Amino acid sequence: MTIRKYLYIAIALVLGACSEQDVFDDSQEEMGRMPVLFSAGNTDAVITRASTSASYMPQDSRFVCSMFFHAGANDTDKSAFYDSKPTADVSMTTTWLKVNNSIGNAVYWNNKYLPAAKTDVYGFDETAKCFYWQNRLSHIFLALADYHKLSEDDGDTGSLKLYPDITTQYENQYMVAYDLTRGDKTAMKQQPDPIQAVETAQPSGATPEANRVKLFFKHQFSQVQVNLKNSQDASVTIDPSQIISVELLGVAETGYVAYCIQPDGTVPATTSAPINIDDAKYATTKKDNPYGSSFNMFQRSTTATGYLKSFEGITFGTLEGIRITWQESSDANAVKHVATFKGLDAKHKNLESGMKYIYNMELRRSLIAQVTAEITPWEIDKTTYEADATIDNNN
After folding, report:
1. CA distance between the termini of the chain
2. What whole-number distance in Å separates Cα of residue 135 and Cα of residue 133?
3. Which of 66, 117, 151, 170 has the greatest count of CB atoms below 10 A from its CB?
4. Which residues does 126 contact at the CB level (< 8 Å), separation at least 6?
């Protein structure tokens, strides 16, 4: 047994925190019990693995992570990670982490995110389960969090509930379901905003720090923003208070995000349940909305420059149309207008994971005069928007 292995065993004994599930065989003895260290990248900035600097998740952010590994003595990187289903502490293990400084360092923590009675030399909660490198083959790390609940201190964060029982599936894949309906929510920040990071790594350095895993989180659903203003021909003058609502038609009511890899190591893409227009719940609205579902968007606290009102929402699936309701004056009995924009091509209709769709619309009486649209990665936080396309209403 090498001096290095004695050293890591000594460290492990000092730490005392992490469970005894992960032991290297003799061919890996020089690595000893080496803990996996993590850094967590922020979703709000464009970051690449080649960057010399990165934006990090805020301090005290929380996420849950699973590690998948090849467990067989004769496995290679081409071997399946599991047969019929992954088995805890054989081909996968799951733990909870939080960011404990300003540069994204993540430490293992108890799954209730309660204060730790004692931490070890790495800052890990000594009661927490931590990951150890199993061998020199590839390991896959899949992490999830709710971006709108990154640091809630209620003992029941969005991250805490992300991993249901391993038998939970959608279309034969292990997925977490998210409610994408508005319900009683009053702002976009109250919607679920799952973020996911997937990283494949194998230990190649001699120390835990040399093998640090960098997790890069991405939004899994889509964000849509609609900005409204009066038509340039001045055919009508609308006050912001006269705009009643903006609705997204045909979008998904339930979205699904993977919390487990496939046997070959791939991660199922984020998806959603299709809308069944024949569902009885749409019977009374089918005449006015042939697409079934309708998501009533939230008014933005900040209106885009040059516009009357801006709306936003997190959604997914298929965007069949954008319906705008406004009235000619502030009087209770004012004439009400409903205009629906349906001129969406496949690029704008089929919402992609991690993308932001911005629609700038001009209103005339009973119709939408012009629409310009931009599709941009959600991670880019723009305060002004330049439209990259003009799309026509085919209605």
Report:
1. 76
2. 6
3. 66
4. 15, 16, 17, 116, 117, 118, 119, 120
Return the closest-CA partner of residue 61 out of 172, 159, 205, 187. Answer: 159
Phi, psi of 247 (to 5 degrees): -120, 145
What is the distance between the alpha carbons of residues 352 and 374, in angstroms, rounded to a whole number? 13
Q: How many angstroms separate the CA atoms of 6 and 1, rounded?
A: 7
Contact assessment for residue 43 and residue 195, using Cβ atoms and an 8 Å cutoff: yes
Amino acid present at 52? T
Instruction: With CA atoms as reference, report the closest residue to 242 among 366, 325, 333, 365.
Output: 325
Contact 141, 67 (CB under 8 A): yes
Q: In which element (H, E) is residue 248 found?
A: strand 243-251
Which SS3 state, helix, strand or coil, does residue 8 take? helix
Q: How many CB atoms lie within 10 A of CB 392?
A: 10
Using CA atoms, how far apart are residues 272 and 282, in angstroms rounded to an integer? 18
For residue 233, report the phi and psi dihedrals to the nearest 5 degrees: -80, 0
Rg (CA), the chain: 25
Tokens of 378: 């959600």
Q: Angle CA(174)–CA(177)–CA(179) in degrees, nearest 5?
A: 170
- Inter-CA distances, 303 with 38, 115, 154, 188, 314, Å: 38, 41, 32, 14, 17
pLDDT (tens place) for every residue of the chain, 395 residues total: 333 343 343 333 333 344 434 433 434 444 548 999 999 987 554 444 444 445 889 999 999 999 999 989 999 999 999 987 777 667 888 999 999 999 999 999 998 899 999 999 999 999 999 999 999 999 999 999 999 988 875 444 444 455 555 556 788 888 989 999 999 999 999 999 999 999 999 999 999 999 999 999 999 999 999 999 988 877 778 899 999 999 999 999 999 999 999 999 999 999 999 999 999 999 999 999 999 999 999 999 999 999 999 999 999 999 999 999 998 888 878 888 899 999 889 999 999 999 999 999 998 876 787 788 999 999 744 433 334 444 444 44
